[in-house]
Design brief:
The structure is a single chain. The chain is mainly alpha-helical and 219 residues long. The protein has a single domain, classed as MetI-like fold (Orthogonal Bundle), CATH 1.10.3720. 81% of the residues lie in helices and 0% in strands. Helix 2 packs across helix 4. The longest helix has 40 residues.
């Protein structure tokens, strides 16, 4: 059986539709993950043990359990408690965002700790409150330093988002499965899916490198 380029071209529009869903899922999830992770990362450094302990439990649970299990918990487990079903798209974004938030939290925590403590002390000596010092002095510098690991998190989430195909959300991998079910040609389709993922990850890598250079990270 020969490799069919015609099949790939015929199914490419459908796969591209799935790729667009993958990009949207990843972008929304990482954006929410950054928001969650920023608060959790700051909470990890709190002097209040109850807050830091709660944040640590969250981070350890999300990083220590499989993302697929977390997706099933949100999609199948929560409806049992809430009494109503959760749409696959909402469940996917929820699970991916909460998972991403745990990894971003550790990135943010490390970024904050990399800033010289003398800058915080200087800000406090000028009359700033701790929250103001964190918001205006520490976080802007920390975020410049954590751009590379945030880019890696985006790439990792882009690939991990394929797991939502398990709840029948028609992103790129699910679209590939549908096409294979119709054509019975898995080799060509999985090659096409892999190439599309490669194009997306390489594009993100180049954008992160450009952003890193633009902001002169590390100067």
């Amino acid at each position: 059986m020969t490799f069919s380029w015609t099949l790939i071209w015929q199914t490419l529009p459908m796969l591209l539709t799935g790729a667009w869903v993958t990009v949207k899922l990843t972008t929304i999830s990482v954006a929410l993950g950054i928001l969650i992770g920023t608060f959790v990362g700051i909470g990890r450094l709190s002097r209040r043990r109850a807050i830091s302990a709660a944040m640590l439990v969250y981070v350890d649970f999300m990083r220590g359990t499989p993302l697929l299990v977390q997706i099933f918990l949100v999609y199948m487990g929560l409806p049992q408690l809430l009494g109503f079903p959760i749409p696959p798209y909402v469940a996917a974004i929820t699970a991916l965002s909460i998972n991403s938030g745990a990894y971003v939290a550790e990135i943010v925590r490390a970024g904050i700790q990399s800033i010289d403590r003398g800058q915080t002390e200087a800000a406090l000596s000028l009359g700033m409150k701790p929250r103001q010092a964190m918001r205006h002095i520490i976080l802007p510098q920390a975020f410049k330093r954590i751009i590379p690991p945030l880019g890696n998190e985006f790439i990792a989430m882009l690939k991990d988002s394929s797991l939502v195909s398990a709840i029948a959300l028609e992103e790129l991998v699910r679209k590939g499965q549908i096409v294979i079910g119709r054509t019975f040609r898995p080799f060509e389709i999985w090659i096409a899916v892999a190439v599309l993922f490669l194009i997306m990850t390489l594009t993100i890598s180049r954008l992160v490198a450009w952003g890193e250079k633009k902001l002169r990270v590390g100067d």
